[in-house]
Each structure stands twice: as structure tokens, then as C-alpha cells.
Specification:
Layout lengths: L1 E3 L2 E2 L12 H9 L7 E2 L20 E5 L11 H13 L3 E7 L5 H4 L11 E7 L2 H11 L6 E6 L15 E7 L9 E2 H13 L3 E6 L3 E4 L2 E4 L5 H8 L5 H7 L1
Length: about 240
């Protein structure tokens, strides 16, 4: 897995942005997150070594994880990014977005029904947000779709939106003042995914976790490891093979 950050900076646009780790990290370093700028690694996917091979190794590339790939301020740069993605069919570029309603205004002319090596992940955090965004997401021409419910700040019924979705990931909020994550919400989304044969991953607990009616406070360093210990991930392809 590799990282590619063609630009940095972002702007809050939904309830899930309240305790955004990007804003918190920038604040500690005295960086203005609202300033959207291209980074020095903008051309990372097509940079080559002296022997002519690409510096960026083939495989999964987490794209624009310190911003939003559909950010309006990046409209002038995105075209070159699409071209670089198309030039690297040996890489799978995955990006998350809270701005899925902008998708059709941001795709390249030759997008068609999507690039085979691009995975688009729509982020939601509560039912209102899910209904608004996923109603759009389900109709978009994208070959590989994922949904991320992180931070999950309320129960979500997303089962009606799972057609053609390959993976749903869930996670809690990380902050001293984080909104609680109820483990029952996580299990309910998992059950929805299993009924629709969609893969599911529990990525991280929340700083404040409710389980069996009891509130627990977890350390940030333990959020991901505790989610793994829950051992509730579900692989739909494995389930289909067994069936």
C-alpha cells in the first residue's frame, strides 16, 4: 500500500468533520488547513528512477487522504491526476470523498462507466447524511464502490444502498470530546452487509465506546487494535465460495 497526496488542505463540510484529524494535526503545527495547495509529490505516480522504472510501486494507492479528491479548489489540478491514474493501470487508486454530489462534474471525458483501477469511497456518518449522499452514489457510473461510515455518530440503515458496493468500513471518532460510538450500531451495519453479501470491516473503535450499555474510554493508540480484536470483519467473496 502506498500514499499519494497531490494536494493538501481541506474545508469542513459535514457533521463528521467536527473533530477531523487533519485539522487537529495542522493546528498543532500552526498550519492553515483552509489553504489548499498542490504538494511536491503531485507527479508521484509517474516519476521514474534512473533505470526507467516507476518510483511508485504497483498495488493499492491511498489517494488524497489528507484532503478530498473532489474538493472545488482542486478542480484545475484534477485533470492531470486522472491522466496519471490512467497511465498507471498497475496501480489501484482509492480515494474517499465527502463531496460525492460533485462527482459527475469532476470526471474526465473518457470516464465512461469508470476506470478499472479507481475505487471511489463515499463517506457518511449518520442517517440524514447517508440518505442524501448514497442516493446519489448508487446511480453514479463507478466500477468499484465503497462506503465508509467513519466517524459513525448514529445508527444507519444503508441496506437499500448496497447494490454494487464492494466494501463497507465503519469506525468511531477519535478525540477527547468525541461523540460516542455504540457497538450495536456497528453490529447492525455488519448484519446489513452480510444479508447483501457485501464485505465489511470494523476499522477503529471510538474514544468513547458504548458496549452492552456501558461507556468505555479508550486511548487513541488502542482504537484500531481493539477493533481488530473484535474479530467481526466479513469477506463476502469468501462467504460466496463457501455457499
Amino acid at each position: 500500500m502506498s500514499m499519494w497526496k497531490p494536494w493538501r488542505g481541506c474545508k469542513r463540510c459535514s457533521e463528521g468533520c467536527l473533530h477531523c484529524y487533519i485539522h487537529k494535526g495542522d493546528a498543532k503545527r500552526g498550519v492553515d488547513t483552509s489553504l489548499i495547495v498542490r504538494t511536491e509529490e503531485f507527479y508521484k505516480p509517474v516519476e521514474r528512477l534512473k533505470n526507467g522504472s516507476y518510483k511508485l510501486k504497483p498495488g493499492l494507492v491511498y489517494t488524497c487522504f489528507s484532503s478530498d479528491f473532489l474538493l472545488e479548489e482542486a478542480d484545475a489540478w484534477r485533470g492531470e491526476c486522472w491522466q496519471m491514474m490512467k497511465q498507471r493501470p498497475d496501480c489501484t487508486f482509492l480515494f474517499l470523498t465527502k463531496r460525492i454530489e460533485r462527482f459527475m462534474d469532476c470526471i474526465p471525458p473518457d470516464w465512461g462507466d469508470g476506470y478499472e483501477n479507481v475505487v471511489v469511497c463515499c463517506t457518511v456518518e449518520n442517517q440524514e447524511n447517508a440518505d442524501r449522499k448514497l442516493a446519489v452514489f448508487q446511480s453514479l457510473p463507478i466500477r468499484h464502490k465503497c462506503i465508509t461510515a467513519q466517524p459513525l455518530i448514529g445508527p444507519i440503515d444503508l441496506e437499500r444502498y448496497l447494490a454494487q458496493v464492494e466494501l463497507v468500513t465503519v469506525g468511531g471518532e477519535s478525540d477527547r470530546d468525541a461523540r460516542p460510538l455504540d457497538y450495536d450500531w456497528v453490529l447492525d451495519i455488519r448484519a446489513q452487509c452480510m444479508r447483501q453479501h457485501v464485505s465489511f470491516e470494523f476499522r477503529q473503535c471510538g474514544t468513547h465506546l458504548i458496549k452492552d450499555g456501558t461507556m468505555y474510554k479508550l486511548q487513541t493508540r488502542d482504537l484500531c487494535s481493539q477493533a481488530r480484536k473484535a474479530n467481526i470483519n466479513y469477506q463476502a467473496d469468501a462467504d460466496a465460495a463457501q455457499g
